[in-house]
């Protein structure tokens, strides 16, 4: 039986390794748990392994806010210390300290 251990945690601010966006983690799947359609939309030579944690992010880039689903191998700690401006952050989280938000609301 595969046992995945998440490298990152809920409330942590991270950035994508290859694409220009960052976000705060609000949920974690121990392994891939999205649709086959989503998986197949990724070019085959860029698809990450399904056998690793996947993270749900309140994400932002220079032009928009959205929810992203990202494999662990494609995330890095965001060392800027800057808050995430996604409008849902304040509904889910409290204060930002040392790159991590405190949890302010009951999460599922």
UniProtKB/TrEMBL annotation:
Coiled-coil ranges per UniProt: none
InterPro entries tied to this protein: Clp_protease_adapter_ClpF (IPR053189), Hemimethylated_DNA-bd_dom (IPR011722), Hemimethylated_DNA-bd_sf (IPR036623)
Keyword Cell inner membrane carried by entry: no
Residues of the Hemimethylated DNA-binding domain: 5-104
A molecular function GO annotation: DNA binding
A UniProt-annotated Pfam family: YccV-like
Assigned keywords, A-Z: DNA-binding
Highest taxon of the lineage: Bacteria
PANTHER family xrefs: HEMIMETHYLATED DNA-BINDING DOMAIN-CONTAINING PROTEIN (PTHR48439:SF1)
Name of protein: Heat shock protein HspQ
Originating species: Paramylibacter ulvae
